Amino acid sequence: MTTVGALLGLVFALGVVLVVRGGPPARHPRLDDRLAPYVGRAELSRAALNPGGSEARPGRHPREWAVAGRALTDGVARLLPGGAGIQRRLSAAGRPGPVAAFRAEQVRWAAAGLLAGAVSGGALGGGVGLVLLTPIGALAGGLGRDWWLSIQVRRRTEALRAELPVIAELLALAVTAGESPTAALRRVSAACRGELGRELTRVLEESRSGAGLTTALEELADRTALEPLVRFVDGFVIALDRGTPLAEVLRAQASDVREAGHRALLEAGGRREIAMMVPVVFLILPVTVLFALYPGLVSISLLTQ
Fold first, then answer.
1. 206-235, pLDDT tens digit by residue?
2. pTM score, whole prediction
3. What is the pLDDT of residues 178-189, one digit of tens each?
4. Which of 36, 98, 255, 303 lies at 20 to 30 Å from 289 by C-alpha?
């Protein structure tokens, strides 16, 4: 009964929060909401400007839920600052989008963790377990979403590091064969299907839209978290601006990237070697000492009897 009462109290408290935050005194309508009755085809134009966006559509979700979710997301964003850092990490993970969408995912993960903690606390008998596990589950859910974003950034960075030497060699071959930098980028991006190939395709699309190839390449360097790729883009841009032989620059960049990869492998091997010492020192060595000393201890105990 205590568990059921605690869950009912939690649901009632959440309901009160939703009513208070969604009521007219606390509701702050946006400009889009005020102009929507006077502008025709508002939702169609919004969908055209923001395809696949996270805006809630009328008819699919009630307005109250949208207002409550937006208020909760804004509250989490105020409690957890650092929107610029989150935006850079989202771009590095290949998930361009607003920070508010990521905060909303954090809220959903925290809600799932809260529910899991409440269920676990109820299964353990309620009381202190329920009080402790519920906030711990919510905190673990919110931090788990941030941890998963870090995992995505690391995986994509490793994929970019693995693809960069091959891409640089292909670009050098294409430029040596007489193609222009734009044509070489187009050929290599069409032949590659990895993360870096998609980034080059995005660079070409931005350059065709009027941004310019140099600007698009600089934006690629800004949204990546890989230092060799940043140096590669800087060398590419400098070669385009100053008219230096691009093929030689690309070959030198590819050689530098391969050397950096070799150094990264050596560093990873050194860290793995240190990590391998942990089970040897704390597991294998004590067991070996125990097997060596146990017969002598048994013999001494028999002689003393």
1. 888 887 888 888 888 888 878 888 888 888
2. 0.61
3. 888 888 888 888
4. 303
